[in-house]
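Exercise 4. Each item below gives a protein and its sequence. For each, produce the structure-token representation.

Item: Cytochrome P450 (Desmophyllum pertusum).
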Amino acid sequence: MFKDQKEESFDPATLLNQSIVEVIGRIIFNSDWDITDPDIDKLICLNELGLKSYKDFQAIMLLDFFSLAKYFPFKSHKKIFGIFHATLEIIRLKLRERELTFDPQASAGDLMDALLHSQREAFEENKEEKASIFSEDHLINTLAVGKRGTTSFASSSRRGHLTVCGYRVPRTLLCIQTSKRCILILSAGRARSFFNPYRHIDKEGNLITNQGNFYPFGAGRRVCPGETLAKMEMYMFLSWMLHKFTFLPEEGQEPPQIKHLRAITQYPAPFKIRAIKIN
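Answer:
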């Protein structure tokens, strides 16, 4: 993909996003994942559009606290939720297509098969509570999130309450995650936006396994379900890229400044680089 740029300046974001979406798409849809399929192509476009709509995400963060907001003509609210609902409808279509060819005797070939197996087992056991957890809407939302195991999904859906430092938190109580604020306080004075290998390697070159307050994927029961896959992807993508190419700024330009944009996640502002193939 980088070789096709012929050492010209380009924004790596789109190429990297397409590659990562390909990996995740194969895990979720397997044989049904075909980028020439108009529905799959639309799904990828919706994903990219969602990532680029950071200003709209900022605008709806406050509106999302008020359920009546959806009845007012807020453009940002309608745009973001339009992307969300369009994504779910494509996944709903793919799920129903898979149900027509699903073989309950065959082993699961992807996440969609695994969820359909779990749904079938729930109905066969005739357990109303478990069957409701594996309803079509729950399956579609799980596929939209991706990579969440059926067991952890079922248990988290049934959990009636949580405890924080021994204090009971009822399921009806609105909790706002503040772990990021804790990390910002604990890491005050350090350049958090810059990659520094010595945060992970000691003076002798040994890997530091216990890194204290460094946990980008969260911790405990609410840890990111995609942590293992994300780590593998980062290692394989970065090692391949650095073995094959030398990355330079645009001709006559300084290296890009590190600037962040915020949407659902925090990510780098657009920039351009050149990829020079290593002989």
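Check: Residues 147-161 have pLDDT under 50 and may be disordered.
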